[in-house]
Write a structure and sequence with these properties.
With about 400 residues, the chain is α+β, with helices and mostly antiparallel strands. The protein has 14 helices and 18 strands. It is about 45% helix and about 20% strand. A 5-stranded mixed sheet has the order 6-5-4-7-11, with helices on both faces. The protein has a 5-stranded mixed sheet with strand order 14-13-12-17-18, sandwiched between helices. Strands 1-3-2 form a 3-stranded antiparallel sheet. The relative contact order is 0.12.
């Protein structure tokens, strides 16, 4: 069955269900949550875990009467809950409050031509509900119509109220202007200059944040993965394409044109990085050298395990190419951690160790500085979707109000 026919049949399968759902809704009822003082209170509770009224006043600089009014409203809506009292050496013990993470929700969307994945997650990053669909059409207008319908089906199926949703994060392979929410170029979707952020905001009334998948995955590691204890990291994506997500002092670096981290065409060995790390390129190279086709990741992993000479050669070239990328990245950025995502970072623990061993003599030359920790991703194939959620969390709880 062709991909187009398969997509068409799946589209028809859900048409009846879609018609029973209001295709247009509004997420603007969370306006109260977006006021500066309320965001300040929520951020302090998110970071501190629990606080008293006086602590909230101290940390935010907001007067105690205003804090009390804000807490009253947040308690009424169950966005905040009481958690007991502080110990006291005398007098009345101050009451403590914490954020109710299961009352504030985020929509994360990962866009690909082969499949779109949507999720509802709480502000701790835990995915509550997930659904996916194969796009019937990649024409932007038709694609977004379908996406919006699926989004409302997701919200209805999750059982949450629309007013609980604080934002929508969208991760996509390609070059993104995150300030405008525009996909400048995506090979995967064959899109150029699509203002998906604006279009989704018009259709949903919600706040939409758009970022490329490598940057999104870097934020996923920062908030939910192996980089929670660091402030600067490089995430190296090695699956749908090769790219880098750069975070310095907990700030995402995307550059003035959204091109920071586009390392696929960086010259290495006898080609570019994409030639040695992007799996379709690696499989094609294997076929050129052997006349045999590699069907999938599992088969290629088995060939490496069986010490097939060409597979071993391509494996060694991938180690060398990634080593050079890491050494360059460390020289320019001085990062604390390098996270290898995608196939090379998750399918082969030995690959990560081989890269570490290969990097060691170069990185140890800077003896006055601690060398970065090089690890494989903890989030695996969910890094992009979790990163879409992380986009909203990062804006809400990290950036200045």
């Amino acid at each position: 069955m062709s991909k187009e026919r398969n997509a068409s049949e799946i589209y028809k399968k859900y048409t009846k269900a879609r018609r029973s759902v209001n295709p247009e809704g509004s997420l603007t009822s969370t306006g109260y949550l977006r006021t500066v003082n309320v965001i300040s209170v929520l951020r302090v509770l998110y970071k501190e875990g629990s606080c008293s009224r006086s602590e909230l006043s101290k940390f935010t600089g907001i007067s105690l009467p205003t804090i009390t009014r804000i807490l009253t409203e947040l308690l009424k809506k169950s966005y905040v809950v009481p958690v007991g009292h502080e110990q006291s050496s005398g007098g009345r013990r101050p009451e403590l409050f914490r954020l109710n993470s299961n009352q504030l929700m985020i929509i994360g969307i990962y866009l690909r031509s082969s499949e779109v994945i949507l999720s509802v997650a709480n502000v701790d990053g835990k995915i509550i509900e997930k659904r996916s669909f194969i796009p019937f059409s990649l024409i932007p207008e038709k694609f977004i119509n379908e996406l919006v319908k699926e989004l409302w089906l997701l919200i209805k199926g999750s059982g949450i109220e629309e007013e609980q949703l604080v934002g929508i994060g969208v991760a996509v392979a390609g070059v993104v202007d995150n300030k405008l929410g525009t996909i400048i170029h995506s090979n995967n979707l064959s899109w150029n200059n699509v203002a998906i952020g604006k279009l989704l905001e018009e259709r949903t009334g919600g706040t939409v944040i758009v970022e490329n998948d490598a940057n999104s995955a870097a934020l996923a590691e920062l908030w939910f993965g192996c980089a929670k204890e660091v402030s600067s990291l490089v995430y190296l994506k090695t699956d749908t394409g090769v790219g880098a997500g750069l975070i310095c002092e907990r700030r995402l670096i995307s550059g003035p044109f959204g091109m920071a981290g586009e390392i696929g065409n960086l010259p290495v060995l006898d080609g570019v990085v994409d030639d040695y790390l992007h799996l379709p390129s690696v499989f094609r190279h294997f076929e050129e050298l052997t006349g045999e086709r590699v069907l999938d990741e599992k088969q290629f992993s088995q060939l490496i395990k069986e010490e097939h000479p060409v597979a071993q050669r391509l494996y060694a070239e991938a180690v060398e190419a990634l080593t050079r990328v890491i050494v360059f990245a460390e020289a320019f950025l001085g990062t604390e951690m390098v996270v290898i995502g995608g196939y090379w970072g998750t399918a082969h623990p030995q690959f990560v160790q081989d890269v570490v061993d290969k990097c060691r003599p170069y990185l140890h030359k800077n003896q006055w500085k601690r060398t970065p920790l090089i690890v494989g991703s903890e989030l695996g194939k969910e890094s992009d979707l979790r990163g879409a959620v992380g986009l909203v969390i990062h804006q809400w709880f990290e950036y200045p109000v």
